[in-house]
Write a structure and sequence with these properties.
Blueprint: E1 2-7, H1 16-27, E2 31-34, E3 43-48, H2 50-63, E4 67-71, H3 86-94, E5 99-110, E6 113-117, E7 120-125, E8 131-137, E9 140-147, E10 149-153, H4 161-164, E11 176-182, E12 192-195, E13 200-204, E14 210-214, E15 217-221, E16 227-241, H5 247-261
Parallel strand pairs: 1-2, 1-3, 3-4
Antiparallel strand pairs: 5-6, 5-16, 7-10, 7-14, 8-9, 8-13, 10-11, 11-12, 13-16, 14-15
Helix pairs in contact: 1-3
């Protein structure tokens, strides 16, 4: 087994957790080195929070490399272990005592270029003024409204920005895409959940400019007359899981921890 380590220097400034990963891997006779894109690995260990995982998830999904997340973030919905669990985790990896969990990605087409999102595709006003949106699913208009922005997310992303905007939490194996408006200027508009096989088109029908974000990264402008096409579930990221607790039990633990950090 060859392991690549991707460490967030902001979350692990002294490299203590990264070094612990290297040490545990070598103690178990596992080849280990720093992660580099387009290099062959059997496993990637991500040291940081969910944002750190998002930075490498697309490349890992393309090559089918599983990710093991070590939590150095605030909550870590996607991470699996804490730093003190690293040694035990590598013992389990050596014994093949783990499971792989599959998480689907969205495919967003912006200006003819494809971008993949593990969490979400977001359009958001670039000026602070509300934008005029039209949302179509399989060429049928499902709503028109003014808003601060709009979110199309995977079930994985349902616990991220969409949750803060009033969207539902969705189980990770549910084949759907969630559509959540951000501060719509109407009492009618509500979040909508559509099938993963359906084609979504988000159009800016007004004059106010907006920006497009894929997993929090700006990928372009979204001016009047432009559209973003979103489809899903053709590609997935794999995550190493040791704990046999259900998603819903894990969710309760994470939300409880999240609430505690706000006290």
């Amino acid at each position: 087994m060859k392991v690549g380590v991707y460490s967030n220097p902001i979350k692990d400034p002294d490299n203590a957790v990264r070094d612990a990963v290297f040490s545990a891997a070598r103690e178990n006779n596992i080849e280990v080195e720093l992660y580099e894109p387009n290099k062959h690995f059997n496993l990637i260990v991500s040291v940081g929070g969910d944002g750190t995982i998002l930075r490498i998830a697309k490349e890992c999904a393309k090559s089918g490399i599983p990710i093991l997340g070590v939590n150095k973030g605030t909550i870590g919905f996607l991470t699996e272990i804490e730093p003190h669990d690293i040694s035990a985790a590598f013992t389990k990896l050596t014994a093949r005592d783990y499971m792989l969990e599959r998480r689907a990605l969205l495919d967003a087409t912006v200006g003819g270029k494809h971008y993949y999102a593990l969490n979400d595709v977001v359009v958001r006003s670039a000026t602070g003024r509300m934008i005029r949106m039209e949302v179509c699913v399989d060429n049928d208009v499902i709503d028109k409204f003014t808003c601060d922005g709009y979110i199309a997310c995977t079930p994985t992303g349902s616990t991220a920005y969409s949750l803060s905007a009033g969207g539902a939490v969705i189980g990770p194996n549910t084949p759907v895409i969630a559509l959540t408006p951000i501060n719509p200027h109407t009492l009618r508009t509500r979040p909508v959940v559509v099938g993963s096989f359906e084609h979504i088109k988000l159009s800016n029908t007004g004059m106010v400019g907006a920006s497009i974000f894929v997993d929090g990264e700006s990928v372009g402008s979204f001016d009047g007359g432009q559209a973003v096409d979103v489809t899903g579930w053709d590609m997935s990221a794999l995550f190493v899981r040791f704990n046999k607790k259900s998603f819903y039990s894990r969710l309760l633990d994470k939300l409880s921890a999240w609430s505690a950090t706000e006290d």
